[in-house]
Amino acid sequence: SFNMNMYLFVYDLMQFCGHSWIFTNMIIRFMTFGKDSLADTFHSIGLVMRLCQLLSVLEILHILIGIDKSHLLPRFLQITERIIVLFVVINSQEEVQGKYVVCVLFLLWNLLDVVRYTYNMLARMDIYYLPLTWLNFSLCIPLYALSVLAKGFTICISLPYFESFGTYSVKLLFPFTFSIYFPYVLKMYLLVLFAGMCFIIRNLLSERVAHLGTGNIKTKRS
């Protein structure tokens, strides 16, 4: 319906504005302060980044209620990956927030999302540009793979801090003694992360073939 389409357009616009602000802020800060800007990237743009990622949870709801025709499982995995790495790993360990890999990770995320939400906004109006369509369905594959590597590296460098501070590690005494050592949980999640990457990349390749591989790419409607 028109109302649902307008709602999705406004949602995509809000996400585009948020991620564009983050991306532009990071570029300007790097051009102004050089490498010194990388260490406090999280403190500069972390709040907006967290708001955008929390807002992205709505995309799961959009698919569940049928107003978005995307596949549920790949989108769910992509969103939960970001939520876990951003809120559980980076946000909880101040020592990790100043690492350069956080800046790289945020740059990859926002580059992906600026392209994706731009494409989505125009698609809501039945406007399709060939270069943008190609970018949206081609650039996402290598950038997503690189972002997974950055997530994995971020988790690896966070492990010593989780071990030292005991963050999220708990010992339950009732009804029986049971301990949860969180670094082990993160190590197991690394396996899930890379297994999920294979599944998501396969899905992205299928979407690319569906939109670009048939020779009938949509162009701007006159």
TrEMBL record:
Membrane association type: Multi-pass membrane protein
Protein family according to the UniProt entry: Belongs to the very long-chain fatty acids dehydratase HACD family.
GO molecular function, one term: very-long-chain (3R)-3-hydroxyacyl-CoA dehydratase activity
Keyword Hydrolase: no
Biological-process GO terms, alphabetical: fatty acid elongation; sphingolipid biosynthetic process; very long-chain fatty acid biosynthetic process
Chain segments annotated as transmembrane: 6-27, 47-67, 181-201
Protein name (record): Very-long-chain (3R)-3-hydroxyacyl-CoA dehydratase
EC numbers: 4.2.1.134
Reactions listed under catalytic activity: (3R)-hydroxyhexadecanoyl-CoA = (2E)-hexadecenoyl-CoA + H2O; a very-long-chain (3R)-3-hydroxyacyl-CoA = a very-long-chain (2E)-enoyl-CoA + H2O
Keywords linked to the UniProt accession: Endoplasmic reticulum, Fatty acid biosynthesis, Fatty acid metabolism, Lipid biosynthesis, Lipid metabolism, Lyase, Membrane, Transmembrane, Transmembrane helix
GO cellular component, one term: endoplasmic reticulum membrane
Described function: Catalyzes the third of the four reactions of the long-chain fatty acids elongation cycle. This endoplasmic reticulum-bound enzymatic process, allows the addition of two carbons to the chain of long- and very long-chain fatty acids/VLCFAs per cycle. This enzyme catalyzes the dehydration of the 3-hydroxyacyl-CoA intermediate into trans-2,3-enoyl-CoA, within each cycle of fatty acid elongation. Thereby, it participates to the production of VLCFAs of different chain lengths that are involved in multiple biological processes as precursors of membrane lipids and lipid mediators.
Compartmental location: Endoplasmic reticulum membrane; Membrane
InterPro entries: Tyr_Pase-like_PTPLA (IPR007482)
Pathway: Lipid metabolism; fatty acid biosynthesis
